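Late entry, magnesium ion complex.
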Amino acid sequence: MSTSSNAKLLEIANLTMDFRTDEGPVRALDDVSLSIEAGQVLGLVGESGSGKSVTARSIMRLNPGNALIQPESRITLNDGARAYDVLSLRDHALRTVRGGKVSMIFQEPMASFAPAIRLGDQITETICIHLGCTRKEARRRGIELFERVGIPIPEMRFDQYVYELSGGMRQRAMIAMALATKPKLLIADEPTTALDVTIQAQVLDLMMELREKEGMAMLFITHDLGVVSQVADDVTVMKKGRVMEAGPVDDVLYSPQDGYTRRLIEALPSMDRIKELPEHRTDSEALIEVSDLSVSYPVTSGRSGAKVFHAVRNMNIRFPLGDIIGLVGESGSGKSSLGRAMLGAAPISSGKVEYRTIEPISISANNRVNRKKLARVAQLVFQDPYGSLNPRMTVRDIIAEPLEALGLTQNRKETDEKVKEIARLCHLDVSHLRRFPHAFSGGQRQRISIARALVCELLSLSQMNLWPHWMYLSKRRFLLS
Ligand SMILES: Nc1ncnc2c1ncn2[C@@H]1O[C@H](COP(=O)(O)OP(=O)(O)O)[C@@H](O)[C@H]1O
Ligand SMILES: [Mg+2]
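Prediction complete; structure with ligand written out below:
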């Protein structure tokens, strides 16, 4: 690690922050201190809701209006030429720091691009402002970055809109955008969580290479301790807005002093844990059976007229009672299409899906699904929790929606009880149910969508005596959740 000057690149001291909410102020950060030297990679880990993203956004001064930073808090950025007192910066100096000296990669890539402007125009503009070069040079640098982050056909992608890219490609475009201005500090908030294992490795390599070449420092936020041990020099562990433990990666991960850190490490899914699952009853009859299922989407290609794209071909899976089935594959291999077909929401071209529930359900090309019936036995938790939660609805209403739509409860009181029950089961704070989705962390939002998916199941559980069944779609090595 290069430490030419003795002043730290970033120094956060006693950062304390509250959110003003309807239930009064809520402390999100409590006396957080950490520092990063030039060229150093600091890993920031902790359970969801522990304050990692809020800390990162404070460095960029991107916290929402209801955030209240306490006066004793200090954030100092020193690039060797000048020291910036980040929390008191205004206009021009703030713009120099945000996006110039410090850039950030977010958990949700859709949020970092304007939807109606071509990606290339946004990146070129940023490069022109911060590096002061011509548009032509900026464009060349932008396309080169697209190539470096592993975007195929970069010249074509550069002129597209964000919605035209797949999830993995969006993430890579966002990384390219963050790197465009040669920042001194790159804040990466769960940057590789949504990527394939192979692409994740490429992206991590790229980030490490940039760190070597350009002396870029990084604040790397992740819940993946495996990734931290690969990329970080030091690690800081957070819980409930406080720093629990900090130090060199090897010390903290291999001989943790703090009980919380130890539990975090123990909570890692591992192949050993899979063995501890109750014995498979493979002999038992399949509750759900997918036979010879093919899913094909129509595509209109310019010259040759209408064609079809085969996303899933002749798939067979059996789900015995109470099983968790992991489905692994690179992006585009058909995982989500299979999942959607099982819910009657993808075009099945042949084969069928059968639910051997009390009222059997069969889905095939020429059999229209009774959605109400199906919704009681099968639900989907989405990849991108933010995109699937209506921002104008409170969390209570989001979770209650399926109950009300299916007419499963008699009155509001009963609905509220069910909502609270499932919220508790999903480790959500029931006093936060009146909040809107934006006021939750990424992990909490994912639990909201799990709660919504399971709220009907809760009824089936008691009425039909069934266990919830899971199909876990993942690009990752570890499949247990
Ligand atoms: N806009 C907001 N209003 C109120 N509370 C918020 C807001 N944003 C985040 N929080 C709360 O701050 C805490 C820390 O969140 P966050 O930093 O996103 O966690 P994570 O460690 O998962 O990144 C959480 O309890 C979250 O509910
Ligand atoms: Mg977060």
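The CA atoms of residues 394 and 436 lie 5 Å apart. Will revisit in the morning.
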